[in-house]
Design a protein that fits this description.
five-stranded antiparallel sheet; four-stranded antiparallel sheet; 12 strands
Length: 232
């Protein structure tokens, strides 16, 4: 449900992005006057692939899945899991203004929608803001390129080891975490089949590398998992 943002939300907000920390009070006022806040429940669509980019969406809290639909829309190609304090769809902003990817909430999330023209004006006139945005886009692109390149050279055990390390070190920042993706979605993330993912997870558990209890996963032998990732 939409909730119009008040000035206190922008100026005193503790969930600003690194880029927004460089906006002055006047710019923050312009942002709030042209934007609004929205909450989504887990599983709800935030941005749909193929739609026109009219606003920039900032993820204040929660986790979001970034993906592209397959040709028959029965499969997905998951690019990454997006954490809080991140702008969604920035690559579309610098492209043809058409959203190239879809975004679905994995948890309950809060987002802020910022007018596209206001956001573009910040980039053009505020050097520090623009630099941070460029840095964010470059970092995401390099990380995703590296991850997808590695997938082509690894077998299922190496791919899954990479994914578990990705969840542990980059997304949840813990050796124990609740897995918000289904096994089917994990297969879309690493470019494998659901059956292969389930089989390899069971093997990792049998080998004592991980522990699985429902949706909770604990990495018990991090050094061994890292070695599997290296030799994958």
């Amino acid at each position: 449900m939409k909730e119009i943002m008040g000035e206190i939300n922008c100026i005193l907000c503790q969930e600003k992005s690194c880029a927004a920390l460089n906006l002055n009070k006047e710019e923050l006022g312009l942002q709030l006057s042209s934007g609004y806040g929205t909450s989504y429940r887990a599983g709800e669509l935030i941005i749909k692939e193929g739609t026109f980019t009219s606003n920039i969406t900032y993820l204040k809290s929660g986790l979001v899945k970034e993906f592209k639909s397959g040709g028959n829309h029965s499969e997905e190609y998951i690019l990454q899991i997006v954490k809080e304090k991140t702008y969604l769809g920035l690559t579309s902003l610098f492209g043809d203004k058409i959203n190239q990817f879809s975004y679905v909430a994995l948890t309950d999330v809060k987002v802020c929608s910022i007018n596209l023209h206001v956001f573009e004006d910040f980039i053009k006139k505020n050097g520090e803001f623009g630099y941070n945005i460029l840095q964010s886009v470059s970092s995401d692109s390099l990380n995703n390129y590296a991850r997808f390149t590695n997938l082509h050279f690894k077998k299922i055990y190496g791919k899954l080891a990479d994914a578990l390390l990705y969840f542990s070190t980059q997304i949840y920042e813990s050796d124990t975490f609740y897995m918000h993706l289904s096994r089917n979605e994990i297969s879309y993330l690493i470019g494998s089949s659901r059956e292969s993912v389930s089989k390899q997870l069971n093997q990792f558990e049998k080998d004592g590398i991980i522990s699985i209890k429902g949706k909770d996963i604990s990495i018990l032998k991090m050094d061994q998992l890292e070695n599997i990732s290296r030799v994958g």
